[in-house]
Structure prediction request, 417 residues.
Amino acid sequence: MSSYIIEGGKKLVGETFVSGSKNASLPIMAASVLNKGVTKLYNVPNIHDTQMMIEILKSLGCKVKKNQNKVVIDSKNITKFEIPENLMHQMRSSVIFAGAILGRYKKATFSYPGGCDIGARPIDLHLKAFEKLGITVHQNFGKIICNTEEIIPTEINLDFPSVGATENIMLASVLTKGTTTIINAAMEPEIVDLQNFLNRMGAKIEGAGSNVIKITGVINLKDVSYNIMPDRIEAGTLLCSAAITGGEITLKKVNVNHIAPLLEKLTEAGCKIQIKTDEVKLKAQKRLKAVNIKTMPYPGFPTDMQAIMAACLCIASGTSVIVENIFENRYKYTGELSKMGAKINIEGKTAIIKGTRKLYGSKVKATDLRGGASLVLAGLVAKGTTKVENIEYILRGYENLEEKLNNLGAEIYMIKE
Ligand code: EPZ
Prediction:
């Protein structure tokens, strides 16, 4: 296992940039399977999760070449329709391959996906949607076997605007003989990126970014090159690293519209924010003010920023209240923050954070991807040295995090044990 060692107390100052979006790259990499050809992707973040997607693509018979942030996928000769169980269990996004393989071959076998332990994370909405599309879904011993003669276009009302379920329905419907409509679709920017990619490939999809998405089936797709959108959660994480340390940074290559709810909250907390086309400058005031947060589906405050904002609120003046409305178990990191002196009470979906003047370096363990990032930010501002263990969680979703933070004046390095 690897750890980060962080010497706290340094203000973060300077300029850095945002990498490509993990949560846009993963479904787009899966979607490449729909085309019997070559897909060239640029600005793909070099992180564990994209590496895992490459392993799955190769296990299906694709040829994949990666050079830094460029990934070339040749999916002409897919030989398998089953996603390996060991790979499924390591990452939630593996379930998105189901829609892509079904879309092209009308059959797919997979198992329940793994991923960060932030809740039960069922896939009932995915499976119900597949059945509505005329796909037979069998389950035995944890394996899910799907097949059909033909995918029947239809109208699907999602009980919840699930990002993954929206993506899976889009992928399964691209090559049908008719139009599928998703009502109550997820509106996240990553869904828009997936629509843009698929349309570039020859699909006919409209409405992404709204809660109604129409997919009109096509017969052929074509080779495509595509540039992945910037990662809005990494952008938020880097801005919060400046906010928590009282620093001043300029963030480049960011899509400002994607992080509006976060900028709103950082402004309310007292940060001075200046916006240019694809740049954000944040200057923190000497002490953040307490704010209240409710996580909601996009365009509300993103659940993925909940833990990261919570770290900032641990040293704000006043008491903040967070309500986590998306996942039922996304406060595990707070026990670790408490070891650093944070004053946090959890009552069901609500976290009450009483701001303190200081946090203290301690030995803590990452509990999941964003919870781990929260501990890193707390370590940046804590007095003394912090050791964050189990950082494999963090390496899943952040490209060169310690390098970016050190370039801004932090003192953080990785040790392998
Ligand atoms: C995506 O996960 C993201 N992951 C998550 O980011 C993000 O937190 C989440 O969307 C919400 O924005 C990727 O894109 C790879 P959901 P996903 O389906 O698709 C329930 C990160 O840190 N639900 O919108 O799994 C589910 O349990 C990760 O980068 C069902 O009940 O999210 C959850 O409570 C973490 N049944 C809620 O909906 C289903 O069939 C939202 O899930 C599907 C979901």
